[in-house]
Amino acid sequence: MDNSSDVSKNASTDRIEKQILLKAPRSRVWRAVSNAEEFGNWFCVDFSGKQFVAGQSIQGNITYPGYEHLVMDLLVERVEPEHHLSFRWHPAAVDVSVDYSPEPTTLVVFELSEVDSGTLLHVTESGFDRIPAARRAEAFRMNSGGWEEQMVNIEKYVAKG
After folding, report:
1. Is residue 2 a part of any domain in this protein?
2. In the predicted model, is pLDDT for residue 4 greater than 70?
3. Is 154 inside a domain boundary?
4. Total domains in the fold of the chain
């Protein structure tokens, strides 16, 4: 399945959409997405001992080389077992000298669908048009590339079993 499309069919600047066919049962993909420790393993964040709970924030130290000095902060919106996980965050919040808290967040949605050959994972991040203009294009570019990499990461992760 082609997961190279950076934007939706209408060439939106507000959303990034990615999808990948994972050759694993939906229950396995769901665990990789919804279990905070497993999510952190493929997403490169240390969420050890933490859980994704709707309505609650979760923080973890980023473990991706060169970004270890950063903390990822998510507000979990919705958890629908085996189908949907969504959270809000500040995209491309990589400058420790900047307070991103006054900025709007983007919404990241993971949706899982069972198909004959495995599980279709659809990831959408929306809300970029509300990000301050001075950093909107860079945040979109960084996260678009980031989601490309994360699709490869989760594919490798669930293939391990």
Report:
1. no
2. no
3. yes
4. 1
Provide the domain limits for residue 131.
Answer: 15-159
Asked whether residue 30 is assigned to any structural domain, the reply reads yes
Let me know if residue 6 belongs to a domain: no
In tens, the pLDDT along 101-152 reads 999 999 999 999 999 999 999 999 999 999 999 999 999 999 999 999 999 9
pTM: 0.92
Radius of gyration of the chain (CA): 15
Q: What is the pLDDT of residues 57-93, one digit of tens each?
A: 999 999 999 999 999 999 999 999 999 999 999 999 9
Query: Distance between CA 42 and CA 38 in Å, rounded?
Result: 7
Q: Please check whether residue 54 is in contact with residue 79, taking contact to mean a CB–CB distance below 8 angstroms.
A: yes
Q: CATH no. for residue 58?
A: 3.30.530.20
User: Within a 13 Å sphere around the CA of 3, how many CA atoms are in the beta-carbon half?
Assistant: 23
Q: Is 105 exposed, middle or buried (CB count within 10 Å of its CB: 0-12, 13-18, 19+)? A: buried
